[in-house]
Design goal:
It is an enzyme of class 7 (translocase). Residues 145-307 form the Alanine dehydrogenase/pyridine nucleotide transhydrogenase NAD(H)-binding domain. It catalyses: NAD(+) + NADPH + H(+)(in) = NADH + NADP(+) + H(+)(out). By secondary structure, this protein is α/β, with parallel strands linked by helices. The protein is 31% helix and 19% strand. It contains eleven helices and 19 strands. The chain has an eight-stranded mixed sheet, with helices on both faces. It has a seven-stranded mixed sheet with strand order 11-10-9-12-13-15-14. The longest helix has 20 residues, at 128-147. The protein starts with a strand and ends with a strand. Bound molecules: nicotinamide-adenine-dinucleotide. Nicotinamide-adenine-dinucleotide (NAD) is lined by residues 119-121, 123-124, 127, 129-130, 133, 170-176, 194-196, 222-224, 227, 252-256, 261, 263.
């Protein structure tokens, strides 16, 4: 069989779904790897770094691939150029993707959206949300350090002592914990906050302080649930007081399949120190701050709010290495006796499937 990947087409996207390492592993399983010319170039993998892949133009890749791996969903017209009955694996943004699922149907494609993997131990090696969130959290804190008018670490110099910056990370999932770890490495006085009580121990194990606002909202599957109106008001009141002493906030709060929870109001931002900075990692999903504008820089009462988009693409080499390994581990589940033969009794296969032979399998 042939596994293919294209050069990602989205603006600013620099990752690639198949790295030289993964091409080699697929080749070792008897799989032919066919990539579009320059597919890995922006990630730091020029064509010649792939010892075990063949290169062709996009049309040929699509015409020959039995399985197409992607980082972001391609435009629907790409599916129309694939061979009938082929398979697609990648981040396919399944929520609200009815037209995409219909396009898959027209070529009787089978598609797996890796965002839908359950957060179980067995799925961890394929978990693209985790691998890419780790990159996003790291990058968000570097962007914060760069844009902050203060030093992160404490310095004792002949010109006097510099006090460390006070950094707060709101939402301590995979991205938030990586942001906390990065702030600690840069020497900031770091706190983390989350509505899931089990994050206290995780935050403290990174040497940061857990900010206890007295609101707990654990949901199902290890995720948070949406807060009630009363809980949200209590959270905001407790947080507003605390924000007066904070220099940098990185927000990462999310509830799966829902818009990003609005945690920071304009009034709360107005109460912060002049020169304070907010990096809203939830910008793509609408933002955790009322004032965030996706992809833009907003100034409000002396406070800067950044809403960077697609942070994993900013560290494309390692982001691609992790992503490609996730794709490889999932693809292994689909292969049987040299063919693609998904076993739908496996929950990892069943829960990620958007379309099987063109029949829709996901409503969301
Ligand atoms: P996510 O991106 O869905 O959310 C980010 C964080 O925001 C979460 O920690 C969530 O609790 C928090 N949050 C939501 N609403 C909030 C609010 N109003 N105020 C403050 N914080 C809020 O989460 P994620 O990073 O994808 O991780 C979700 C969970 O899955 C975590 O428990 C993580 O450890 C777990 N996980 C488990 C595995 C595994 O065992 N295989 C793998 C990855 C993640």
């Amino acid at each position: 069989i042939t596994v293919g990947a294209l050069r990602e087409a989205a603006a600013g996207e620099r990752r690639v779904a198949i790295t030289p390492e993964v091409a080699r592993k697929l080749h070792g399983k008897g799989v032919r790897v066919l990539l579009e010319h320059g597919a890995g170039e922006a990630a730091g993998f020029p064509d010649q770094s792939y010892a075990e892949a063949t290169f062709a133009d996009a049309q040929q890749v699509l015409a020959q691939a039995d399985l197409l791996a992607c980082v972001l969903p391609p435009v629907d017209a790409v599916f129309e150029q694939m061979r009938e009955g082929a398979t697609v694996v990648g981040q396919l943004r399944p929520h609200g993707a009815a037209t995409r699922i219909a396009a898959l149907g027209r070529r009787k494609l089978t598609a797996f959206a890796l965002e839908l993997l359950p957060r179980t131990t067995r799925a961890q090696a394929m978990d693209v949300l985790s691998s890419q969130a780790a990159v996003a959290g790291y990058r968000a804190m570097l962007i914060a350090a760069e844009a902050c008018p203060k030093f992160f670490p404490m310095l004792t110099t002949a010109a006097g002592t510099i006090r460390p910056s006070r950094v707060l990370v709101i939402g301590a999932g995979v991205a938030g914990l990586q942001a906390i770890a990065t702030a600690r490495r840069l020497g900031a006085q770091t706190e983390g906050y989350d509505v899931r009580p089990e994050t206290r121990e995780q935050i403290e194990s990174l040497g940061a302080k857990f900010l206890d606002l007295g609101v707990s909202a654990a949901g199902t599957g290890g995720y948070a649930r949406e807060l009630s109106v009363e809980e949200r008001a209590a959270q905001q009141q407790a947080l507003a007081d605390h924000l007066k002493v904070v220099d940098v906030i990185v927000t990462t709060a999310a509830v799966p399949g829902r818009p990003a929870p609005k945690i920071l109001t304009a009034a709360m931002v107005g109460g912060m120190k002049p020169g304070a900075l907010i990096v809203d990692l939830a910008a793509e999903g609408g933002g955790n701050c009322e004032l965030t504008r996706p992809g833009e820089r907003v100034e409000h009462a002396g406070v800067t709010i950044l809403g960077p988009l697609n942070l994993p693409a900013g560290a494309p080499l390692h982001a691609s290495e992790m992503y490609a390994r996730n794709v490889y581990n999932f693809t292994e589940l689909l292969l049987r006796d040299g063919a693609i033969a998904p076993d739908f009794s496996d929950e990892l296969v069943a829960r990620t499937c958007l379309s099987h032979g063109g029949e829709p399998r996901f409503q969301g």
